[in-house]
Amino acid sequence: MSTTVEKAYVTARPVNPAGLPTAYEHGGRLTAEGTTVDPILVEIVQGTLASVEMEVETAIGRTSRSPMIRDAHDFRAGIHDRQLRKLTGRSYSALVHPVARDFPLAEMAEGDVFFHNDVYESEGGIGHLPDLCVTVPVFHDGEVVAFVQAFGHHDDIGGGCPGSMPSGATSVYEEGLAVPPIKLWDKGVPNKAALRIMTRNSRMPDSLAADLDAECSACLMGARRLSELFARYGRDHIEAAFDAILDATTETYRREILAKIPDGTYVWEDYAEHDGVDAPMLHTQRITLTKVSDALADPENGRPAGPRLIIDFTGTAPQAKGPINHCGDYVGGNFLKKWLAPILRNLADTPERMAELDVNEGIVPLIEMRFPEKGTLLTPIHPGPTNARTFVILRLLGVLAGVVAKAVDGRMPADQETIRYTGVYGHDRDGNDYLMREVLGGGSGGRYYADGEDTIHVVPDSRNLPTEFTEGRFPFLVERLGLAVDSGGAGRYRGGLGYEKHIRMLKDAHFMSIADRSILACWGLKGGKAGAPFHVTIDPGGPEERDVDALADAEPIRAGQVVRIRTTGGGGWGDPLDRPYEEVERDLRWGKVSVDGARTAYGAVARLDGDGVHIDAAASDALRAEIRSARGEEPFFDRGPGYARLAGDGTNANEFDWI
């Protein structure tokens, strides 16, 4: 950090919405405009960055202890330059901004490790307290030149219930231990007092300590790898390559993605359905998207002239009493820009090209975000609770997809699965406390060229817990893990299916769930139908059968009872009556659609005989004609029956759902 910037930090001290100083150097170029660099070196540097990021994540996965980190892989690594710009694009990551805000770069030393998880002091990079973040500076010739960072969802950091995600929390103080940016390691020496405070506040102290050690060690290793890169090629060449990597992303998205969106203004909204405190209601998240092709340059905010997307969140609902709020309005929405941008890749010419596009800091200059005043779901006021903020930021992915779909005649996927945490806790066979929690995926939305994917996980590289591991460690049996039949939304291209999982408890325990989309379904697009919602039943078919609310902290389960979990199906794309009979027949053979589902959703009459399942084409043609003749005008988006229940006026669509 330059001397000038350091003086500004000390004397001027402008503040962000959290009341914290923000005069740290960030977002600018490392080299002058027009600086040339060997394109081969750019490829070497880009490959090395990706390799180091993957090596850091591999090390964390192999040396951590908790099921959530080691097995479910709910953690991310990222590499940032000294201007705090994210250089890697394989997945999202947190931000370095709060560390640079509180610890000037000139005062950092090799072997330092910084830590934070405080939602309100994280500049929007950390959404809830179980996400613990470690940051390691990279040095070359005694100066900070980059950062390696990792954050992951840890088992427990205190708070009102095991797992630190109390569904009825009304303040962040109920959610666990909040730690602002601190120096966790000082020149290679761990701060044992800080570690002791954190582990003392956790119900799972051993796994917390082991996971933190894994993350710190992995990031220190990553920092050494990057130092070697600087030593080999020199700082000037490496920083020129960093600028070239981000410039290439900016130009690629400008040319291949933004050019596909017609100039104009488009509005759409979607909703979270409950906050754990108030009765279920429509918690609105609205985006007004404006595409401008000839925007003027805005050097003060690092935005070049040319195409730009303006994302305005005005109309978003007030801050919820319960824990579904997300602190998004920091650093100009820097985190949200990189969180939402992967949705835009769906506009690429081919699926193969879509998979090639990275999301790094290069997309930031192309997006301008406008937030409402403080006190909304995206601009909460401390100490508003946030542990279930996924209900908001994951819904925003769908809101952006929907508003872009309106602009491009539906050439976007229908709604995807949303993350949910399910689990059980109690005492194991030896009388010790245990917590088994996992992130179960669901179906992704149908696309204009293909069906959605089954049981995907929105967190990159995440996965369900292996049955062999959970049965060996926890007192239950997994009696079924498969696809939830008929859960995918009907369409010309069907939505992906969710999970169906049956867990039989061997000892009395408690079930917990932090889930959305139990009333409102994943919406269908351009004639496609909504998918099936999330649903949990305890003791299905038994004398104590009952449905469980999607937000539950301590639902009792008795030994011998089964918990049946069905996760969301993705929305369908296009008219289901246009789906070819051979594709419906294939779904029947594969067990993805039932005979009744084929008839009611697709107008396909199936018969069973000794040769298997067959579609009666003549009967199906007649049924489809009957269904078509009975139809009225339909909205562009199908929200499923849950919307009418919460809207309260009997309507199945809002004013923005029509084209």
Give structural attributes.
single chain; 659 residues; alpha+beta; six-stranded antiparallel β-sheet; five-stranded antiparallel β-sheet; 15 helices; 23 strands; 21% strand; disordered N terminus
Number of helices: 15
Mean pLDDT value:
93
Largest sheet, order of strands side by side? 1-4-3-2-5-6
* Computed CA radius of gyration, to the nearest angstrom: 25 Å
Q: Given the helix and strand composition, which structural class is it?
A: alpha+beta
- Described by the principal axes of the CA atoms, the overall outline is globular
Q: What proportion strand?
A: 15-25%
Biggest sheet character: 6 strands, antiparallel
Percentage of residues assigned to helices: 25-40%
Spans of at least 5 consecutive residues with low confidence: 1-14
Can you count the beta strands?
23
Could you describe the 3D structure shown?
It is a single chain. The chain is an alpha+beta fold and 659 residues long. The chain has 15 helices and 23 strands. It has a six-stranded antiparallel β-sheet. A five-stranded antiparallel β-sheet has the order 13-14-20-17-18, with helices on one face. It has a four-stranded mixed β-sheet with strand order 7-8-9-10, with helices on one face. Helix 2 packs antiparallel against helix 6 (205-233), helix 2 crosses helix 7 (235-257) and helix 5 crosses helix 6. The protein has helices at 3-11, 39-63, 67-71, 97-102, 192-200, 205-233, 235-257, 334-340, 351-356, 390-407, 467-473, 581-590, 595-602, 617-630, 642-647, and strands at residues 75-81, 113-116, 131-140, 143-153, 182-186, 189-190, 264-272, 283-295, 306-312, 367-370, 421-427, 433-439, 476-483, 499-505, 509-514, 524-525, 535-538, 546-548, 551-557, 562-566, 606-609, 612-615, 637-638. Mean pLDDT is 93; it is low at 1-14. 28% of the residues lie in helices and 21% in strands. A hairpin with a 2-residue loop joins strand 5 and strand 6 (189-190). The longest helix has 29 residues, at 205-233. This is Hydantoinase B/oxoprolinase family protein. It comes from Nostocoides vanveenii. Pfam families: Hydantoinase_B (PF02538). Residues 38-576 form the Hydantoinase B/oxoprolinase domain. InterPro entries: Hydantoinase_B, Oxoprolinase-like.
